[in-house]
Amino acid sequence: MIELIDVSKNLGGKQVLDHMSLSVEEGETKVIIGRSGVGKSVTLKHIVRLMEPDEGGVRVEGKDVLALQGKELNELHMEIGLVFQGGALFDSLTVGENVGFILREHMSMAQSEIDKRVRESLALVGLYDVEHYMPADLSGGMKKRVALARAICTRPKIILYDEPTTGVDPITADAINQLIDELHDKLKVTSIVVTHDMRSAYKVADRIAMLYEGKIIAEGTPDEIRYSHDPYVHQFITGAAHGPITDGQNSNGRNGG
Ligand SMILES: Nc1ncnc2c1ncn2[C@@H]1O[C@H](COP(=O)(O)OP(=O)(O)OP(=O)(O)O)[C@@H](O)[C@H]1O
């Protein structure tokens, strides 16, 4: 289970998270939607303590993330697979080295075990015999799959996906959505998927939460969100240019503006 409790974070003078609370049940896939710059990535960074809140708490699997130190923090990082925006593979390492990187750096596993785990992880994302390829030899969709394989190679309990379908064509995006579903079923993971791609959100989510002006303003099943009468949700999911969501920092938003 993942819990952000009343988290506030100011970055560069902007109140990005403002007493924000979110909880993700064990085995659930929660999708966070919201406009660019609304704080979706910042939210994920708090869960792995790449960022610390100004106020509030973060709990993962019952542990107070802000109290973890050294070895315990490393253990937390082993329990969480991160799929960053863009995939970000190391260009100078082979696919196999990329996928096994964390195992080599942080776990005392024999090379033969690492090779086996790398093969298994690649197979889970539908890739076979690609260990010796260089990232530059791969298509965008394959790179995303390799990034997924890398995220699952520690067999995490949690996977955090930051815009996994951004920058790929709709068919590749659909294949990635399917993989997110499959990994959820096969590895029984708890997942958070950050996206502004509503097709992806409806496809992979157990529940969808919408972030706006520092808070979760709506949450529900895909159907509850799809048929929501909330004007903010409706505007976002239909992509309407006009509505209560504004571009400005000084909007007359629902939080008092
Ligand atoms: N390290 C930082 N220092 C200063 N400001 C930051 C930092 N990280 C993020 N921000 C700001 O916080 C806000 C939220 O950023 P975040 O990356 O979480 O947005 P997002 O919702 O993930 O957007 P996108 O969909 O474009 O990725 C943005 O205004 C961003 O500029």
TrEMBL record:
Domain of life: Bacteria
SMART domains given in the database record: AAA
GO MF, one example: ATP binding
Record-linked InterPro entries: AAA+_ATPase (IPR003593), ABC_transporter-like_ATP-bd (IPR003439), ABC_transporter-like_CS (IPR017871), P-loop_NTPase (IPR027417)
Keyword tags: ATP-binding, Nucleotide-binding, Transport
Chain ranges of the ABC transporter domain: 2-238
Full protein name: ABC transporter ATP-binding protein
Organism for this UniProt entry: Velamenicoccus archaeovorus
